[in-house]
Amino acid sequence: MDAVTQKAMTKKSNLKSAGTKVSRGSKQWPPAKTVNSKRNQSSELRSTKLMSKVKPIIPPNFVENLFKQTRFTKKEIVGLCKLFKKLVAIYGAESTSSVAAMSSVVLITIPTQGFDRLMFREFLQNEFGITTEEILTDRIFCFFDQRNDGVIHEDEWITGLSVLLRGTQDERIKYTFTIYDLNNDGFITKEEIFSLLRNCLVKHPQDEDPDEGVRELVDIVLRKMDCDNDTKLSFEDFSTSVNKQSLLLEAFGQCLPSREISESFLNSISSVQ
Fold it and tell me: What is the DSSP letter of 252?
């Protein structure tokens, strides 16, 4: 055996003993785990870029119909449509991330149809400062959810905001009466007034009977607002009382944003990209 052959065999033997497999012309591939990781990152990056390039398309007839139904301008409606998608994404992000955390699969998030009850309650608190009791936020949700399917859709959101932000006195009176009429029977009963006031006023009861003070307040309210003395408030009773004294509009709990917050929200619409 010549020296060259002996040297080559010795080198091969050393490589073999080191656990390295030698193959003529073979390419040293990275571990499969690294390749898959890079592929996933590349796929996610491509998906993100594609989604960032997609701009929401707002049908002209959609804007036209809402222009006829609401007190917003067409420009404001376009801004509200863009804002709706952003806010739904923001308030829906927490629930989406929770689902993703429980799964080992890479999720492609599909935007939700609109606000559910929890998302809408957070929206009312964060954007409008309406930090009222759950019983009232649920009633406000029902007012917006005209389809009664448990979701506030884009057109429902804009139509509802028209009343809250740009509604006439009559529209706002009708809205608040609807919120306070808990069982939708056309009257705000003595029991409903008690329930609404108790939730608003009784936080940390210190008296032996904290409800007694609430009952006395209910009687005072009825004496002031019950024009026909039938121990319940009809829409006519409520409307007449509010027109005489505007502070009674939200007599049983906050369900409208303040004028300052409303103006600030409306001014922000034009800057939505």
Answer: T
